[in-house]
Specification:
Strand order of the largest sheet: 21-20-19-27-22
Helix content: 10-25%
Structural class: mainly beta
CATH topology of the largest domain: L,D-transpeptidase catalytic domain-like
Oligomer: single chain
Number of helices: 5
CATH architecture of the largest domain: Beta Barrel
Largest sheet: 5 strands, mixed
Number of strands: 27
Radius of gyration: 35 Å
Strand content: 35-45%
Length: about 425
């Protein structure tokens, strides 16, 4: 090949190479370059023509593609501008479909329920514009993991009717360091208009109550707006719900360890006086305002679980069918039926290991006994005030017993 022919061949090869680069790239080089069939100007015109034919529908998927620590509540959403949605599918990484609904105006879509934690989801969307041209969008995101999220286990339950002493008690599954942020995400209100304040007992527990007992027959509403709230470094809330419960009649009972009688009052009036047997002089019953937190028609009481053991390490007592038992403290104080003691002790002698005993029969099926009467007429959240035992006042966080703290001290434990 002559030098002239070789030059022409090199020029042709360069032109061809230039065409390949233009055709496979998203941006060109010198706009003045010429390349025959690979002319960048021709390609630009082709791109412009293709763009003019593309759908105007603008799809937006949230969370954005690649997100992690996404909310399980309301983060997932699809919206479209300049068009309408025609199909949205959401699946887990393993292919399990997630139900959802396109809005009536076909402008948005959201899942029908709460998502799972620590799960990767894939979203595929199709929309069309006014000219019927289709647009597509895809995204994948991962929801917050259990290690990076916290939840609050609360009492009472939604729809429950409780006594006037029932606080709203929330126990978090992880220690909270940003207490103010978390407390601001919780509101508790009463239909009676009572001021309600939260008190942190520790990094995992906050209780809410008014200054005095709840107003009878009122409604209390708990709102948790903790979704996305940072409770501690790298740990976020996931709950978003509203809970309502009803306050029943005002029943407060007064146990007097000296007279060995309990007066049951409603709206301040005594409706019944019941003989009792409180803690013995060696095992006095706590004093103070105690709230019934659990009810058991029958339950086992083993002294070993609360520190009453004999020389062999066995419980000083182990009664497997204690009737009509209602818990007053986390540490084991109950007011319950007693069928094993002589009937003569009630109203006369304090004999228990710290509980308050009422006369009862074995099997918890005799509705005529004082213990059955009290059990059947009591609600979770009713108050039992124990007096004149000679023991210390029950700690406010030992059960649901925050009423044993002054209002000033209670408010001092708020983070907001």
């Amino acid at each position: 090949m002559t030098d002239g022919k070789r030059r022409k061949g090199l020029v042709a090869a360069s032109a061809l190479l230039g065409g390949v680069l233009v055709l496979t790239g998203c941006s060109g080089g010198d706009s003045d370059a010429k390349g025959g069939d690979g002319d960048s100007t021709s390609q630009a015109k082709a791109d412009e023509a293709a763009a003019q034919k593309a759908s105007e529908a603008d799809i937006k998927i949230t969370p954005k593609d690649g997100s992690d620590n996404a909310s399980i509540n309301n983060a997932a959403k699809v919206v479209v501008a300049k068009g309408t949605l025609t199909d949205v599918t959401m699946t887990t990484a393993s292919g399990t479909a997630v139900s959802g609904r396109i809005s009536a105006d076909k402008k948005s879509w959201a899942p029908s329920g709460q998502l799972e934690r620590a799960t990767t989801y894939k979203v595929a969307v199709t929309a069309k514009d006014a000219k019927g041209r289709a647009a597509h969008e895809n995204a994948s995101f991962t929801t917050v993991s259990q290690a990076h999220s916290f939840i609050g286990n609360f009492t009472p339950d939604n729809g429950q009717t409780v006594g006037v002493g029932m606080p709203v008690s929330i126990n978090f599954d992880k220690a909270i360091t940003n207490k103010a942020a978390v407390q601001k995400g919780i509101t508790v209100t009463s239909s009676a208009g009572q001021e309600v304040v939260g008190h942190w007992f520790n990094a995992n527990r906050i209780d809410f109550r008014p200054e005095k007992y709840w107003t009878e027959n009122s409604t209390v509403t708990l709102k948790l707006a903790l979704d996305g709230v940072q409770g501690a470094s790298g740990v976020y809330g996931v709950q978003q719900k509203t809970v309502t419960f009803k306050i029943g009649r005002n029943q407060v009972s007064y146990v007097d360890a000296q007279t060995k009688q309990m007066k049951v009052t409603q709206d301040g009036k005594t409706i019944k006086t019941i003989p009792i047997s409180a803690g013995s002089p060696e095992n006095k019953t706590y004093e103070g305002q105690m709230v019934i937190s659990e009810k058991f028609k029958e339950t086992r009481m083993n002294g070993a679980t609360v520190g009453f053991t004999d020389d062999d390490g066995k419980g000083e007592y182990d009664i497997k069918d204690v009737p009509h038992a209602m818990r007053l403290s986390s540490s084991g104080t109950f007011i319950h039926g007693n069928y094993w003691g002589a009937k003569s002790i009630f109203g006369a002698v304090n004999t228990s290991h710290g509980c308050v005993g009422l006369s009862d029969t074995k099997g918890a099926n005799d509705s005529s006994t004082p213990a059955a009467w009290f059990y059947n007429g009591s609600l979770i959240g009713d108050v039992v005030v124990v007096q004149n035992t000679g023991d210390k006042t029950v700690a406010p966080d030992n059960g649901l017993n925050g009423w044993n703290m002054s209002w000033a001290d209670w408010k001092a434990g708020s983070a907001v």
